[in-house]
Amino acid sequence: MADLDLALGLAAIALNLVAGAVGGLAWAGHRVSIAFWYLLRAGQVATLAFVVFEFVIYAGGDRADDSLHYLYIVLPVLASLMGEAMRGASAGQELGETDFSSLDPERQREVGLAIYRRETGVMTATALVIAFLIWRALETTAGMF
């Protein structure tokens, strides 16, 4: 059990760190990165698998000595939900009260790229926070197995 727990945790950390690095480079370079979104979603799936497995372990009776472990298990899910909510709000912040369809095509492109950049920045930060939280969760598993 401990090996699978560690493997899931490390996979979630690695995928989120890679997504964060790719997203950070795309954000800083004002580039569009399709790979970032695939890596981000893979990191989210790995994070969910890790969290679900942790709940299975808990339900099976294995407990960590440090109760902070359980906080670090729940926080990545909350961080992901907050990141998605902030990503969704980024379009509204960029557009304000402007009717997107009334803009000329070049301005639509500029606004679309600005929205994309905001979304990339938000989700990059989220992926890095999740990687840190899962790392902390793995650090606090002393006595669990």
Word description of this protein:
- Helices cover 80% and strands 0% of the residues.
- With 145 residues, the protein is mainly α.
- The protein has one domain.
- Helix 1 (2-28) packs antiparallel against helix 2 and helix 2 runs antiparallel to helix 3.
- The longest helix is centred in the last third of the chain and has 35 residues, at 105-139.
- The mean pLDDT is 91.
Helix content: over 70%
Amount of beta strand: under 5%
The residue ranges in which pLDDT falls below 50 over 5 or more consecutive positions are none
* Element pattern in H and E: HHHH
Q: Which class of secondary structure composition applies to the elements?
A: mainly alpha
Helical element count?
4
How many angstroms separate the termini? Answer: 8 Å
Query: How many distinct domains?
Result: 1
What would you call the shape? elongated
Number of strands: 0
Give the biggest beta sheet. Answer: none
Q: What's the rounded overall pLDDT mean?
A: 91
Rg over alpha carbons: 18 Å
Notable characteristics:
145 residues; mainly alpha; 4 helices
Q: How is the secondary structure organized here?
A:
Blueprint: H1 2-28, H2 34-59, H3 68-95, H4 105-139
Summed up:
The protein has 145 residues and is mainly alpha-helical. Helices cover 80% and strands 0% of the residues. Helix 1 (2-28) packs antiparallel against helix 4 (105-139).
